[in-house]
Write a structure and sequence with these properties.
heterodimer; A: 232 residues; alpha/beta; Rossmann fold; Arc Repressor Mutant, subunit A; 2 domains; five-stranded parallel beta sheet; two-stranded antiparallel ribbon; 9 helices; 7 strands; 52% helix; globular; B: 385 residues; alpha+beta; Heat Shock Protein 90; two-stranded antiparallel sheet; 12 helices; elongated
């Protein structure tokens, strides 16, 4: 969705939003941290790789981790999973270059709250940070396309005998996702479908929640099958 | 075949070694049975010629290989044939009738080996059959081919076939390996370049581009600085696409991945979105869709107005593939399109429609003033027949 109200301070009821910036390129990392800090967010930490980010999360307790997917060592998808395991209230906003679609999808399934391309403008970035901190999904057109594609892939795949049934989209959810993927803002979608802005947000959030829940159930089932929980 | 001096050189030395051993063996046999021959001196002459020929082959500095070896191989075959036939003149007919060794003994085996090594299983078979036929001719009128003779011929044929076929397999394997190593080296080099660009140029471009956003946000955007930053962002997007594209993944025969083809259309202001997995279509359908999308994007650039953004959305559904090109530009009255069609001024629309209907698909254009334009292309999974 397009950038909403930009320029307001990044403060939330409990004080400024705490942000961690994770990127392996120092120049880029400092530029983003500077932008974010100037906009009123509290940059509590920066990290150059996934392992460092995971290590620093418990002490710094960021509200939002701005995470590059392409990281040396522990990659962005694994880092997302471990950050959320260490600090479930933290939200991960993925920043990625184009051409990493499969990784973006994996990160979102692992629990990332949204995704933004690296070429996004400063205002888009700040708006996305603000909405992520407020608990909204940052649902760009790119993410909608990926999520819709994933649901269709699961619907087309042969059912696995013992596993939980793959989640499905309602007709309305499909409709909303298609409009997001075509670049309409949630306000435009609300107008077109004659529903409230809030309802649009709920539909979008639902599609993501179902996908993440399914992914968690699948991972657990896999762990049980592999006997990984035997000594736990 | 591959050009690998070391490997082929070893093969040549192996054949040479067999040749020398076979010659010595033939000479020893001749010496032992010397007194039983009709014309032993003629036997020594024949063996002498073979010895000179062997020395020529073994001492020749250039490997007698596929390049210039045909006359050598033929000469070799002719020489051993003559040597076998000469047995009739040299040896006692009674001895021949009882199945004595031919004059060159196992030397023709070296000839069959040479043919198999440098001309494959067909060459090996050919040489073995020729030598076998000469063996039979040598006996004509004296005796029928003995079990021993038939045995020898079968062994020769087997040697030619097996050695030739085995070497063909080895050479094909080595060629595949060389190709694989080459591809891996090229990929590694490309990845190294991509990493370098990613670590250096992209970082600087991203930094400069980000500077523009900061400047715009704080209201101190200089015109030139703003332009520079915008250009840097555009360059970054293109370069990023280039280095992250990687070598094209091979799609199953005759198909193409629409997703990656359309990703190449990405430019500033255009968002390409779709599933994470490849969207496979017959190659002609994929290229028709890509061309139609390109035309639609050109149309956006020309008519939607300054700063209009566009989205290309790919959907992979069981019955077919849908691609939507939407812009948030000026849009137009739906009636205008019909009017244009009536006047024969179809332009871009007809170009898009033509390409898509050629592959059995359909096009739907919706627009309203101020609402942007949406072009929906639907194509079937199979080429219409």
């Amino acid at each position: 969705m397009s950038a909403g109200t930009a320029g307001t301070a990044g403060s939330a009821p409990g004080g400024p939003v705490r942000v961690m910036v994770v990127d392996d390129h120092p120049l880029w990392r400092e530029a983003v941290a500077r932008d974010v800090g100037e906009a009123g967010f509290d940059v509590v930490a920066t990290a150059g790789d996934g392992a460092e980010a995971v290590r620093r999360v418990p002490a710094t307790r960021p509200d939002v981790v701005l995470l590059d997917l392409q990281l040396p060592g522990l990659d962005g998808v694994a880092a997302t999973r471990e950050i959320l395991a260490a600090s479930p209230t933290t939200r991960v906003l993925v920043l990625s270059a184009s051409g990493e679609q499969a990784d973006v999808l994996e990160a979102v399934k692992a629990g990332a709250a949204g995704y933004l391309v690296k070429s996004a403008s400063r205002d888009e970035l700040l708006d996305a940070l603000r909405r992520t901190a407020a608990g909204e999904a940052v649902f760009t057109a790119g993410l909608a396309g990926l999520v819709l594609g994933e649901y269709r892939r699961m619907a087309g795949a042969p059912p696995k005998g013992s596993g939980p049934p793959a989640p499905e989209l309602t007709d309305r959810e499909t409709e909303v996702l298609r409009l997001v993927a075509k670049g309409l803002s949630s306000r435009q979608i609300a107008e077109r479908l004659v529903i409230s802005h809030r309802t649009v947000q709920n539909h979008v959030q639902n599609t993501l929640t179902k996908l993440q829940l399914h992914n968690r159930v699948e991972l657990t089932r896999y762990a049980i099958e592999q006997g990984l929980d035997a000594d736990g | 075949m591959i050009d690998d001096g070391w490997d082929e050189g070893r093969l040549r030395r192996a054949v040479d070694a067999f040749r020398v051993a076979a010659l010595v063996y033939a000479a020893v046999l001749h010496a032992i049975a010397h007194d039983e021959y009709r014309r032993p001196w003629a036997g020594w002459i024949v063996l002498g010629v073979l010895a000179v020929w062997t020395a020529f082959l073994v001492l020749h500095p250039e490997p007698i290989g596929p390049g210039h070896g045909t006359w050598v191989l033929v000469a070799d075959l002719v020489l051993v044939s003559v040597a076998v036939l000469a047995t009739r003149f040299v040896d006692d007919l009674g001895r021949i009738a009882t199945g004595a060794q031919t004059l060159p003994s196992i030397y023709p085996g070296a000839t069959v080996l040479a043919w198999a090594v440098w001309r494959g299983w067909r060459g090996g078979l050919f040489a073995a059959v020729v030598v076998g036929a000469v063996d039979v001719v040598e006996l004509a009128g004296v005796a029928g081919p003995t079990a021993q003779t038939v045995n020898n011929i079968v062994l020769l044929v087997l040697t030619g076939l097996v050695v030739g076929f085995g070497l063909e397999l080895v050479r094909a394997g080595r060629a595949d390996l060389a190709a694989a190593v080459e591809i891996r080296a090229a990929t590694a080099e490309r990845e190294r370049l991509a990493r370098d660009i990613h670590d250096s140029v992209l970082q600087v471009l991203g930094f400069v581009g980000r500077g523009s956003n900061g400047a715009a946000g704080s209201g101190v955007a200089g015109g030139a600085a703003g332009d520079l930053a915008r250009l840097a962002t555009e360059a970054e997007v293109r370069l990023r696409g280039l280095v992250s594209a990687g070598p094209a993944r091979p799609a199953p025969g005759g198909t193409a991945d629409l997703r990656s083809e359309l990703a190449a259309c990405g430019r500033t202001g255009v968002t390409v979105t779709g599933p994470a997995d490849p969207v496979l279509l017959p190659a002609p359908v994929a290229s028709a869709v890509t061309a139609a999308v390109g035309a639609a994007l050109d149309n956006v650039a020309a008519h939607a107005g300054d700063g209009a953004k566009a989205w290309v959305f790919v959907e992979d559904e069981p019955h077919g593939v849908t691609v939507t090109v939407r812009d948030d530009g000026a849009g137009f009255e739906p009636a205008r399109l019909e009017a244009a069609a009536a006047e024969g001024r179809l332009g871009v629309a007809s170009c898009i429609r033509g390409r898509i209907s050629d592959v059995g698909g359909s096009v739907q254009v919706t627009s309203a003033p101020g609402e942007g334009t949406e072009v929906e292309l639907r194509v079937p999974r199979q080429v219409a027949r």
